[in-house]
Amino acid sequence: MAGPTTRTVKEIKVDIDKCTGCRACEMACSAYHAQPRYSSINPAKSRIRVVTDELNDEYVPIRAGDYTRAECSGRHVYTINGKEYSECSFCRASCPSREYFIEPDSGLPMKCDMCESVPALDEPMCVKVCVADALIYVEREVEREEKPQPTRGQIEFGLESLVGQFGMEAVIESLVKMSKAREH
Ligand code: SF4
Ligand code: SF4
Ligand code: SF4
């Protein structure tokens, strides 16, 4: 039977002109993800951080994205309405160039999970507490695209990167294990 033809994309629209730098979003996110929930508030454990340059009256809320092993060797500098912003101000990476999005106790990278939980929230915590309306939650339906079958070249390219990272022996061992697991 054919599956659903659309999927839901969740977005948080950020209006940096409205952000006051109050950092309520950081506190709410860290409290929501504390164990047990709401047991502590620590912006260093937040998955949203407000990049702040008070002298220039700049506040840019960014949510944690993927982990990257190395910082960029070259970075863009953006000029927006006469103000200069470093690429890092908009970058969501958990990256060694800064302390954002690295869990201070474990040292592990953190990533925004859109506050997905059971029961589900009607909107993410950072959006709920942003009284300036700098963060707006939006859900939209988009057409589900048929995934093209990977070509042989793409598969080999992916395998090569795994081999480079973990070594041929470990990759073969994992493939054999996966294949055996599928047989059962
Ligand atoms: S709660 Fe809203 S206004 Fe306050 S820092 Fe976060 S995004 Fe900016
Ligand atoms: S924060 Fe982003 S842009 Fe800045 S160095 Fe790290 S990966 Fe590059
Ligand atoms: S959506 Fe949830 S997890 Fe993501 S930054 Fe906002 S409060 Fe944190």
Question: What would you note in describing this structure?
Answer:
The chain has 184 residues and is α+β, with helices and mostly antiparallel strands. It has two domains: 17-140, no CATH class; 154-183, no CATH class. Helices cover 24% and strands 21% of the residues. The protein has four helices and six strands, in the order βαββββαβαα. The protein has helices at residues 24-32, 125-129, 152-166, 168-183, and strands at residues 6-14, 48-53, 58-63, 77-80, 83-86, 135-143. A two-stranded antiparallel sheet has the order 1-6. A hairpin with a 4-residue loop joins β2 and β3 (58-63). α3 (152-166) crosses α4 (168-183). The longest helix has 16 residues, at 168-183. It is globular. The two termini are 25 Å apart. The relative contact order is 0.18. One iron/sulfur cluster is lined by residues 68, 71-72, 75, 87-88, 91, 93, 95, 97-98.
In short:
With 184 residues, this protein is an alpha+beta fold. The protein has helices spanning 24-32, 125-129, 152-166, 168-183; strands at 6-14, 48-53, 58-63, 77-80, 83-86, 135-143. It is built from four helices and six strands.
Unique bound compounds = iron/sulfur cluster
Secondary-structure element pattern, one letter each: EHEEEEHEHH
Please count the beta strands (DSSP E, at least 2 residues each): 6
How many DSSP H or I helices? Answer: 4
Unreliable stretches: none
Mean pLDDT: 91
What assembly state would you assign to the polypeptide chains in this entry?
single chain
- What integer value in Å does the Rg equal? 21 Å
The portion of residues forming beta strands comes to 15-25%
N/C terminus separation: 25 Å
Number of domains: 2
The secondary-structure class comes to: alpha+beta
Largest β-sheet summary: 2 strands, antiparallel
